[in-house]
Amino acid sequence: MRIFIPLALLISCSALAAEVRVEFNRDIRPILAAKCYACHGPDEDKREADLRLDVRAEAVKSAIKPGNPDASELWKRITHTDSDNVMPPPSSPKQLTKAERNLFRRWIVEGAEYQNHWAFEPIKHPAVPKSDSKNPIDAFIEAKLRTHGLKPAPAADPIALIRRVYLDLTGLPPVPADLAVLSNWSDQTYEQIVDRLLASPNFGERWARHWLDMARYADSNGFLGDGLRPNAYLYRDWVIQAFNTDLPYDQFTVQQIAGDLLPDPALEELTATGFHRNAALNTEAGVDKEEARYQNIVDRVNTTGRVWMGLTVGCAQCHTHKYDPITIRDFYSFYAFFDNTEDRSDAKNKAQTLAEVSKDRRQTYVHMAGDYTRRGPDVIPASLSALPPMTKPLLPEPNRLDLARWLVSPQHPLTSRVAVNHIWSKLLGFGLVRTPDDFGTAGESPSHPELLDWLATEFMRNGWSRKHLIKLMVMSATYRQSSAHREDIVELDPLNCLLARQNRIRLDAEILRDSALAVSGLLKRTIGGPSFRPPLPEDVFDVGRSSNWKVSPGDEIYRRSLYIITLRSVLYPTLTTFDSPDAADACVRRERSNTPLQALAMMNDSVFVEAAQALALRALREAPPEVAKRLQLLFELTFNRLPRAEELQRLAVFHREQKFRVKKDGAKALQVLGNISSSIATSDQTEAATLIAVARVLMNLDEFINRE
Amino acid sequence: MNRRDALQRLSAGFGAIGLAGMLGSQAQAAVKQQVTPKAKRVIFLFMNGAPSHIDTFDPKPALKKYEGQQPSGKLYKAPATSGFMSSPLQFNRCGQSGIEVSESLPRLGSIIDDCCVIRSMHTDVPNHEPALLMMNTGNIQPIRPSLGSWVLYGLGSENENLPGFVVLRPTPNIVVGPALWSNSFLPAEFQATGVITSDMNVDKLIANVRNPLLSSTQQRRQVDLIQRFNQLHAARRDNDSALESQIKSMETAYRMQSAASEAFDISREPPKMRELYGDTPFGRSCLLARRLAESGVRYISVYYTSNNNQPWDTHSDHYKRHPELCADSDRASAALISDLKQRGLLDDTLVVWTGEFGRTPYSQENKDKNKKIDPMKRGRDHHHTAFSTLLAGGGIKGGLAYGASDELGMNAVEKKVHVHDLHATILHQLGLDHEQLTYRYAGRDFRLTDVYGDVVTDILA
Question: Using omega within 30 degrees of 0 as the cis cutoff, is the peptide bond preceding A123 cis?
């Protein structure tokens, strides 16, 4: 039996439109970008038949007669029956569908109007649609749902919502006491929770992790030697603090890209420039230093492009971009901003070893075909030509500080949109633009362009405060909806682009481990400081030529997952099994896979085994000595709710069976107690072993593994 | 059968129905298979450190004529060499095809009619790390998805009770490390399951595969309860397919614990069979590879490592070390190919035997304790412009020597085959078009072969 992906699933979010008129950005450009631009786009070297379709003035010269498809060569070619003449050529894997051909026809009939790519247009200040909703986000979302005849889902039940907002804002589940507010549940109590979580130091830990993914943070150099970076954690801690103090995003940006160029930079501002020092660095003996340096700068250019602008500038390293208006000259002009940093050899203190240090800029050239040995024309630092120019005059030439300030200038069409979209994606499961690392023409268009712009404006208007933005989002009814499956939207909106419900999210690797440690009481909550080394399975360490693996002492190993040392050659398998990134490149969006290996890890990995033991011990010690009470406490600690009658009954049956079995098996069955054995009275050991079996079951449930 | 039916039947108990079709990866696989497949699975035997082509599959009698002469032309680096060094090993015409194979590989020689030797391989760089990455991931820099992950992404798993991509190596030490079998940006379901084969106990072989403290019955009872709760949970959420697939994964994981215990257990093999493969780490790994292939594992890599983590890197004592390595590898590799053939599995199993590059036709000098050059210690250095790769089964022509290096084995000259071409060919045999097997990441479509690679059609049966 094979089930094919239903056709509807292949529809992208931007295609969900109610309007009738063909719109270039929404309907035509994606097809052109995916199927035509490779040969008829911005790249001169690859252009065929001297035809470019990305510029209207060029296209209407020969290929398109606006208003008259039958006289248009484009229409003739895409409908040609002769295999020598039909476009795209039959050898191309990118064939047009009938629906796409029809769209071209309608578009030409309607005048073949072009639009600039939406993401390069200035950010608009759209009016909030009329609505009864207090939160403007809901007004935008509901307006769009209405055009499809849909209503939002009902609010999530309070317990699910409290869990959701705890996990999203702090990466840790609530403790039973946090649920006391339920007796007095209202919008105000919810808002109080939100305010408290935003002020919690755990907020910075959780949101730093998102940023560290993009900063390709690691505690080692990568490549063969994979040398340690013992001070890298100072940058990680800076990020945590930046979130906790709500450092405005514009300053957050400037400090990371050019903190060293600020007048009389403070220690923190130097530490911030660790952002670009995070890149993998090949320090092997025998490596071509000039090439390593070139690759390192290329990484900085690409990462800056992806993280702040959502652009795949990297494509232009070797050739003018196939889809986006980024030329190879643009790439190396951008590169020139970074072509002047060198490692400080006379490091005076730890922060300085991390920091960028500027020397005179080197002469930068275009490197033909991305080959560092092939020099083309020389270039000077400049921003991308398709974007608004820098206000700073070209002489004396702009530096990295000017670049950083240009990124966060209110005229920049990308920075705020990209940041807002990234934050949205962490709270709603997906971005309004579903390709958060590609706002270019080959990426997806926003599902709610007005909302995106409204949020981007609001973000800047409120001093680039991320806490303000996050609060706005989590206070919305859109965020607070139930995530339950809706049969009525499956056909229309299989990807849930319209947000007629919240999205369920498989917990990120770090949250899973942290949650298990938290509910079991093992979690050590120290914030910041050097990274620790958890126990590793034998087959993982000792690879590459890394130093020996010394497990951190005592309860260090129970610290939060973001403090686990990230060695690029020895990634911690418990996390990578759940899609944590490898720190090779900026990771803007994680995969969320579901594999049997994950289930095996949840069942048998030592972290989760220890957590089950500790959780059972808690139940034994903290609950009254009755089976039902113990089961209830286990359930409550794990899910923040009491079991329903049916659940409790099944657990009780299981408990009875298991206890019988443990008694029968005697000493062998007591081996599951592991290290907690010594802390339990002999008379309680049978019960403890039984409770471990229950705890294992509970921590493996989907309700634990998912954020509803 | 729709999802709801499936879930209802699922509630009735696993094992009653095959749920393979519910897996997203399989649905995708159906879309991606573009070419009629000849092979269903791959066993990749990797000689870490790079074996010498001059002493295995590429005889160069002319080296005798130039013995001791300094190599000229474009060399990657100036070598400390006493000049060209001919192979003291004899090459024999083997099989019906009469392909010449070194006396150090007698057993592979005896089955050469089932094999294709490519003598015109070449790669980009003569350094281990980039060359290993090239052979394993198609790119000289870390980290890109490995060949095995691409194959799994393209075809899905053949057996839902086992991982689809298994990496065997006798020691944890391996140059570059797990990046050689990384799924990189491909979703984690296409990741490899890494297995250290130094201890063949099943518990030691697979991480987390068993909880040593619980019997299978106890686990089953726990998993049953987990699944019952998960079904209640899903039912309250209108049977969301995402939840259903988590239920499926949990079940597969449970079944892996018993299926893996059997498939990974070579103690179930008769002593004769173990003898045939050789009771060495590599021999045992090859035997395990065959068991896994038989059980439907899609892609199996066996790395030839030892405590010296790249044993074939014979910079010194070449003619002492090379024959020893060959003896071990020859026995196990030939046993594997013959065994597969006897079981009728060779037709749809592609076996690849290769290193990351070759070794220099000229010597590398080494000094003795007194810092004097010791001719007895001569080795061969890294060499990337010509080397040999052996293929067998999976719809590849047997008894074929394809391509050629020049008279001295310095450069591939005739019908050159780059690693990208090898990759394109492997994918092709599995029914995958290397140009169409793409994954969109960071704003562009990635493929294993980047923008290169041609299928070597001349070697297809």
Answer: no
Q: What is the CA radius of gyration of chain A?
A: 28
**How far apart (Å, rounded) are the C-alpha atoms in residues A417 and A433?**
9
Contact B40, B348 (CB under 8 A): yes
Contact criterion met (CB < 8 Å) for B249 and A671: no
Per DSSP (E only), the strands in B299-398 are: 299-304, 349-354, 358-364, 379-383, 387-392
Q: What is the DSSP string of A426-472?
A: HHHSS-SSS-TT--STTSPPPSSHHHHHHHHHHHHHTTT-HHHHHHH
Phi, psi of B385 (to 5 degrees): -90, -5
Cα–Cα distance measured from residue A138 to residue B55, given in angstroms and rounded to the nearest whole number: 73
Listed by start position, the domains of chain A span: 24-114, 248-407, 606-707
Ramachandran bin of B61, using left for φ above 0, alpha for ψ from -120 to 50, beta for the remaining angles: alpha
CB contact under 8 A, B254 and A443: no
Task: Compute the residue count for chain A.
Answer: 708
The pair of structure tokens assigned to A380 is 């000077």
Residues 6+ apart with CB under 8 A from A136: A128, A454, A458
Question: How does pLDDT run across A479-518, given as a tens digit for each residue?
Answer: 999 999 888 887 788 789 999 999 999 999 999 999 999 9
Sequence letter at residue B137: T
What residues pair up with B379 in beta bridges, in sequence order?
B364
Question: What value does the mean pLDDT take over residues B47-71?
Answer: 96
Determine, for residues A603 and B253 on separate chains, whether the beta-carbon distance falls below 8 Å: yes
Region for residue A66 given its phi and psi (left: phi exceeds 0; alpha: psi -120 to 50; beta: otherwise): beta
Question: For residue A363, which amino acid is it?
Answer: Q
Considering only CB atoms, A702 lies closest to which of B189, B209, B230, namely: B230
Q: Do A2 and B234 touch (CB under 8 A)?
A: no
Which two tokens mark B233?
């949970």
Contact residues, chain A, for B444 at CB < 8 Å = 312, 315, 442
Per-residue DSSP letters for B156-209?
Answer: --S-TTS-SEEEEESSS--SS-GGGG--TTS-GGG--EEEE-SS--HHHHSTTS
Q: Which of A92, A435, A593 to mutate to test the interface with B (most CBs of B within 10 A)?
A: A593
Distance CA A434, CA A446 (A): 7
In the DSSP assignment, the letter for residue B441 is E
Q: What is the pLDDT of residue B6?
A: 37
Token digits of residue B79: 């070598």
Task: Say yes or no to pLDDT of A345 above 60.
Answer: no
For B24-206+264-403+416-459, CATH number?
Answer: 3.40.720.10
Tokens (6 digits) for A444: 């997806």
Are the Cβ atoms of A3 and B193 closer than 8 angstroms? no
CA-to-CA separations, B171 to A537, A541, B43, in angstroms, rounded? 13, 11, 19
**How many C-beta atoms surround the C-beta of residue A248 within 10 A?**
19
Interface mutation target, options B3, B4, B28, B208, chain A, most CBs of A under 10 Å: B208
User: If you measure CA to CA, which chain B residue comes closest to A541?
Assistant: B172
* ipTM of the prediction greater than 0.95, yes or no: no
Contacts of B237 in chain A (CB under 8 A): 483-485, 504
**Cα radius of gyration (chain B):** 24
Token representation of residue B32: 């991606």
pTM score: 0.77
The domain spans of chain B are 24-206+264-403+416-459
Q: How far apart are CA A453 and CA A469, in angstroms?
A: 13
Considering only CB atoms, which chain A residues are within 8 Å of B234?
Answer: 702
Q: With contact defined as beta carbons under 8 Å apart, do B53 and B119 qualify?
A: yes
- Residue holding tokens 């049966």? B461
Model confidence at A545, in pLDDT bands (50, 70, 90)?
very low
Mean of pLDDT over chain B? 86
Phi (first) and psi of residue B460, to 5 degrees: -85, 135
